[in-house]
Amino acid sequence: xxxxxxxxxxxxxxxxxxxxxxxxxxxxxxxxxxxxxxxxxxxxxxxxxxxxxxxxxxxxxxxxxxxxxxxxxxxxxxxxxxxxxxxxxxxxxxxxxxxxxxxxxxxxxxxxxxxxxxxxxxxxxxxxxxxxxxxxxxxxxxxxxxxxxxxxxxxxxxxxxxxxxxxxxxxxxxxxxxxxxxxxxxxxxxxxxxxxxxxxxxxxxxxxxxxxxxxxxxxxxxxxxxxxxxxxxxxxxxxxxxxxxxxxxxxxxxxxxxxxxxxxxxxxxxxxxxxxxxxxxxxxxxxxxxxxxxxxxxxxxxxxxxxxxxxxxxxxxxxxxxxxxxxxxxxxxxxxxxxxxxxxxxxxxxxxxxxxxxxxxxxxxxxxxxxxxxxxxxxxxxxxxxxxxxxxxxxxxxxxxxxxxxxxxxxxxxxxxxxxxxxxxxxxxxxxxxxxxxxxxxxxxxxxxxxxxxxxxxxxxxxxxxxxxxxxxxxxxxxxxxxxxx
Length: 486
Known about the structure:
Strand content: 25-35%
Oligomer: single chain
C-alpha cells in the first residue's frame, strides 16, 4: 500500500521535463515540453489523490515541528496565528509571521552546529507567478540531529537580506513551492537551516529571482523561464536625472529659485538643499512635495547660501543640479535700493539723490550718507555675489532716480534682474532682463527702473552721520579706466 510519504512535486516534474532534450531522435520543443508537463502533472495529481494527499503535498505540522514527510514543502506556516505562505509576505502582508526578525547563528557555543548551510540554491519561476526554490539539504555533524525548519531570507535590494520567514520541514525537504502567486519584481534570496541542536546554519548561496509580468495567456502548469521562451519582463522604473539650469534671484529677505526638469525620467518631487559652504546642506534640506519648477522662500535671514536641487523618483534621489550662491542682505536704513540678478554678468546699480549726486561704482558714497556696498562681478572678475545695495541711514527728502546698467554680459546669453526699493516703511519690486554684450556704462548710464519721492525722515540724525562713511570696497581699476569713472 502506498502511503502519503510519496509526493510528486510539480517543481520536480517541471525540472525533469525541462531537462529532457530529445525523445528518440526527435528534439523536444517548448510545445512538446508543455504537452509532457501537462501529461505528467495530470498523472502526478492522480497519483497523489489516490495516496490520500492534497495536490500541494504534505501538510506541515505546527511551527517548530518537522513536516510530516520529506521531499516537497509548500512552506505554509501554521500555529497559533493564521496560516501564512511566504508569497503573502513577498506580496506585502503585515502578518506577524512575515516579521520573525533577524536570524542568529547558534547561541550555544558548546553545542554542535550545522556545519554548512543549504547549498546549490536555485529557483524556478512559472508563467502563473508561482515560485519554486530547490536546494541541497545541509550536512549535519551529530548523529540523530535533524533539520526541523528552514529560513528564507530575502530583500528587494541587492546585498541585503532584511526579511526572513520560517517554515517547518524535515531532513529530506529540498523543494519549496509558493501556493499563491508572487507579484512581479526582483528578489534577492538565500536560505538557512535550523536543526534540533542549532538556532540557524550558515547561509546558502545567494540568488536573484526575477518574477516577470504575467503572460497574456498562461498555461495551466508553470514552467521554467528561458531565453528562448519567456514572459515579458516589466521595464525598470523611470529614474529621474538631476534638474538643470538652476537660477536664483533675491530681494530683501526673499529667495526665488527656478530650474529646468531633468532630461531623463519623471520626478515625483524635488529636494532643495542649502548650505553655508559649497556642497553642504546644513541650512536647508527638504522635499518640495510637488513637481513645480520654482520655489520661493520668504523671511530668509541675511547671509550667504549655497543652493542646489535634486529630483525625487521611484529610484530615490538623483544627483544634484548646478549649485548657485545666493547672498541675502538684511533690511536696514531709511532708504535702501537693491539689485540682484541670476548670472555671473557685471550688472551695476545707479541711484541719483535729490541733490543730483549719482551713486554707482565710480562714485561709491555721497555727503548725505548714501553708500554702495560692493561692485559685484566687476569687469567679470572678483566676488560673484550678484547683488548690489545702496542705502542711507537717514535719507534726504526729495526725488530719487533708480537705474540698472548692463556693463557686461560676461558671456551670459540673458540675465534676469530684480530691483527692490525700500522707501521708509514701503517696499516695491521691479523685474526685467538684459541681452546682448553690455554697454560698459558709467555715470548717467543704465535702464530707468523707477523714480520715487522720499519725505523728510523723522529719524534723529545719529552721531556717525557727522562723518563721511568709510569706503566699503576698492573699485576695479580696469573698469574705472574703461568707463572713465573716478
